[in-house]
Design goal:
By secondary structure, the protein is an alpha/beta fold. It contains 15 helices and 17 strands. The protein has helices at 153-168, 182-190, 207-219, 230-245, 257-261, 265-268, 286-290, 315-327, 343-346, 350-354, 380-392, 401-413, 418-437, 465-479, 511-523; strands at 2-3, 7-8, 37-38, 54-55, 121-122, 171-172, 223-227, 249-251, 273-275, 298-302, 331-336, 359-363, 374-378, 446-448, 456-461, 481-482, 496-501. Helix 1 (153-168) runs parallel beside helix 14 (465-479), helix 4 (230-245) crosses helix 11 and helix 13 (418-437) crosses helix 15 (511-523).
């Protein structure tokens, strides 16, 4: 699909809708900026392509799709009393004055400007449900990662129009996360239980344990633990490794998820520190890792690196980087939120890929269409320790069968289809390049990467983002064809970017279909 972008809500700095955004080490003090370049002309590393030459700095950006504020209840509508707990761990007893003016929590911000929870991904369209007809149809609504919505009425209107047009469209490359309704999700969920008389799970037994065993089997690891969010799974994995290695330093890319979308949690929550082997918009190389000046206990690799255009290293490059990390006495953790679809590029099975790492996190909603949730996989001892920390972090949830059932359905239905999505994405990317090259009205464009590494990629055009979004909405409303959704101005002046994802609905598209859609889109600019 064309992603309005998933995006994990980030305090004080939003993310463009659909492309590599942001920077920096999101530490506790908010300091640091990504020196990485994305965009045309960016230097690419071995086996990878740079993005469109864009130097991005520390300036905060607001997520164009984010929701903030009005849903937070404060003031006179907040019920407080002798037994009401207000704020984190704060109890108000009989002697505590409460009422309309009481602030609920020492650090709680409420009102229209409140930042969304950093654990919530704020990308409404990037990870759409791949198959409404036969798949779990749970990629939107429940479990969808959403974040603060812009306050402007115009932005809200565009978001609503995108959903309406997407739901009624006769042709699209993928579904949007926001298109499914609660009723549709519940109806689909009702058919996912193989045995409706099976007792519901309690604190991770039953169907949740069945999911954990299935993940470990698919990845070739000794064990796996279910987590309510990928952010929690990854934070705990890196925390466990820091304790085991005795080194709190994590080497990772400045465009990786913990740096961009987790609100500085590595340092704020776990007391860890990060270093960057490279600032270029590509995967780090073995030589860069070898030259890193200070010791690090863990190397974290995001596969693929979404912010740089869903980039993967070659298999030889990945092996070399891992070998270099081990030569420096570091363990290796894979952020494998989208690892499921990486097998095509690597030409290796999931167990072969995962065997290179000491632990891996995988997501159930990003590519599999699950409601929500993630898993951390690794050795028996690591996963056992992670389960202890999961409880401490508040992740030991009473009942999780909806997320577990939808994840199992995604593993059964969507996982086998991912290679076909990657193949079609490459066809679509090539057709987009040809169609834009044949459009005299378009002075410049970039499809990045030219040959997508997964079923997702970026498109860059030299127009205002709002203008491009409006053209895409009008195309969908007037012709029933969704080509692009939301665009973002995350780059040099005059350039905008979006993400394209190809899933089940896009498999029927031909090169001629893409060319026709591009002509209609350009005509509405």
């Amino acid at each position: 699909m064309n992603q309005d972008t998933e995006r994990d809500a980030r305090p004080a700095a939003g993310r463009m809708d659909g492309a590599a955004e942001a920077d920096g080490e999101a530490g506790a003090d908010g300091a640091g900026a990504r020196a990485a370049q994305t965009g045309p002309g960016a230097e690419a590393g071995p086996g990878t392509e740079g993005g469109p030459g864009i130097e991005t700095g520390p300036a905060a950006r607001t997520h164009p799709n984010a929701e903030t504020g009005p849903d937070v209840e404060t003031g006179p509508d907040v019920e407080t009393g002798p037994d009401v707990e207000t704020g984190p761990d704060v109890e108000t007893g009989p002697d505590v004055e409460t009422g309309p003016d009481v602030e609920t929590g020492p650090d709680v911000e409420t009102g229209p400007g409140v930042d969304a929870d950093p654990d919530v991904d704020a990308d409404p369209d990037v990870d759409a449900d791949p198959d409404v007809e036969t798949g779990p149809n749970v990629g939107a609504g429940l479990g969808a990662e959403t974040g603060p919505e812009p306050q402007a009425a115009g932005a809200d209107s565009v978001a609503r129009r995108l959903v309406v047009a997407g739901r009624s469209a006769s042709r699209k490359l993928s579904h949007s996360l926001r298109e499914a309704t609660v009723g549709e999700l519940l109806a689909e969920l009702g058919g996912l239980a193989p045995d409706p008389d099976e007792p519901a799970d309690i604190y991770g037994d039953g169907v949740v344990e069945r999911l954990e065993r299935r993940v470990a089997e698919l990845l070739g690891t000794e064990d796996a633990a279910f987590f309510p969010t990928g952010t929690m799974a990854q934070q705990i994995a890196l925390r466990c490794w820091a304790g085991r290695t005795g080194n709190p330093v994590v080497a990772l890319h400045p465009m990786s998820h913990p740096e961009v979308w987790e609100g500085g949690a590595l340092s704020v929550v776990s007391g860890l520190r990060t270093v960057h082997p490279t600032g270029e918009p590509r995967q780090p190389t073995a030589s860069e890792l070898a030259d890193l000046a200070e010791p690090f206990g863990t190397l974290m690799l995001e596969l693929p690196l979404r912010e740089a255009g869903f980039l993967l290293p070659s298999w030889a490059e990945l092996q070399a980087v891992v070998d270099t990390a081990r030569a420096r006495d570091a363990v290796v953790h894979f952020d494998g939120a989208r690892l499921w679809e990486s097998t095509v590029h690597f030409g290796r099975s999931l167990p072969e890929i995962v065997a290179l790492a000491d632990s891996v996190y995988v997501s159930f909603y990003k590519s599999l269409g699950g409601l929500s949730g993630a898993a951390l996989a690794g050795s028996t001892s690591l996963v056992a320790e992670a389960r202890v920390w999961r409880h401490r972090y508040g992740g030991q949830i009473f009942r999780q069968f909806p997320a577990a059932l939808s994840a199992l359905a995604g593993l059964e239905r969507e996982l086998p289809r991912l290679p076909s999505y990657v193949a079609k994405a490459r066809t679509v990317a090539c057709a987009l390049s040809s169609a834009f090259a044949a459009a005299p009205e378009v002075p410049w464009f970039r499809v990045h990467t030219e040959v997508p590494h997964t079923h997702q990629f970026q498109v860059w055009l030299p127009y205002d983002a709002d203008r491009l979004t409006e053209a895409g909405v009008r195309l969908a409303e007037e012709t029933g064809t969704v080509l692009f959704r939301r665009w973002s101005p995350d780059g040099p002046p005059g350039l905008s970017v979006t993400e394209v994802e190809v899933t089940q609905p896009g498999l029927s598209w031909t090169e001629a279909d893409v060319a026709e859609a591009v002509r209609g889109f350009v005509a509405r600019l």
